[in-house]
Amino acid sequence: MKEVLTGERPYPMSLPLTPGTSAIGRVTTVGPDATTLRPGALVLCDIFVAARDDPSSQFLMGLHSGAPNTKPLMDGEWRNSTWAEYAKFPLENLYPLNEDLLLKKQGYTIRDLCTLPTALVPFGGLDEIGLKPGETIVIAPATGTFGGTAVSVALAMGASVIALGRNKDTLARLTSTFAHTNRLTTVPLTSTLETDTAALRHAASLTTPITAYLDLSPPSIPKNTYFPTILALLAPGARIALMGGMAGRLEVAMEMVVHRQL
Q: How many whole angstroms separate alpha carbon 150 and alpha carbon 127?
């Protein structure tokens, strides 16, 4: 988010605006089209908005105006987002949470629930490729906000994880945090193809066949030395979720993709 606000990552948006991200909130007022949502309800507020008359037209409230045809939505009704005391949302972007179950019975706090919006991003990719308990998945890179969260989500789903990243301190924290699972292997990346390939092959030899891969490569990544190697290590029929925003192009050995049924 810092790169967006400073202009380092030049997202298109309508200025001035109140920025924000998906959040946990309480309903204060509902519109005339609400039938079950009531003031006081605890809700997850999703900033991913789709036009009602064209679901393929999408944007992020207070963050990214999306395609040119969605800019009028950010210019007008849905310009401002959650970094304020009050925010206005489309009704379909509010998801009621069972407060009695989550807070009273299961003991979560509101602060705990604030991790949901971040966790739901990688969960979308993991769910899309049908990650199952007992499988092994590679997550790369795994040291950013979404990558690190993806590791915790995949472990919670019962999978074993090979986590790649350049930040050795973050990898060490992941190892310490999830040591009790005995299902996490970390691999430091060096941007040197030969070194990274050897480290990946060694990690793959320590676990069950790799049947899934979640890629979260950011635009700032200097050079992707791991993508071709990971593809070569995947088991036949493995599933891949590409959720990163890396710029440029990737070369893929089409013969390998076809023969491995990726």
A: 11
What span, in angstroms and rounded, lies between the C-alpha atoms of 220 and 243?
14
Distance, in Å, from the CA atom of 222 to the CA atom of 184, rounded to the nearest integer, reads 26
The three-point CA angle 250-254-259 to 5° equals: 135
14 φ, ψ to 5°?
A: -95, 120
From first to last of its 262 residues, the chain has per-residue pLDDT tens of 778 888 887 888 888 999 999 999 999 999 998 999 999 999 999 999 998 888 888 999 999 988 888 888 888 888 899 999 999 999 999 999 999 999 999 999 999 999 999 999 999 999 999 999 999 999 999 998 999 999 999 999 999 999 999 899 999 999 999 999 999 999 998 878 788 888 888 888 888 899 999 999 887 665 667 888 888 889 999 999 999 877 667 777 777 788 777 7
Burial class (CB in 10 A: 0-12, 13-18, 19+), 103: middle
Contacts of 2 (CB under 8 A, 6+ apart): 8
The SS3 call for residue 133 is coil
What global pTM score does this model have? 0.85
Give the Cα separation of 155 and 88 in Å (integer). Answer: 35
Paired tokens of 85: 């005391």
| Residue closest to 77 by CA, chosen among 88, 93, 68 | 88
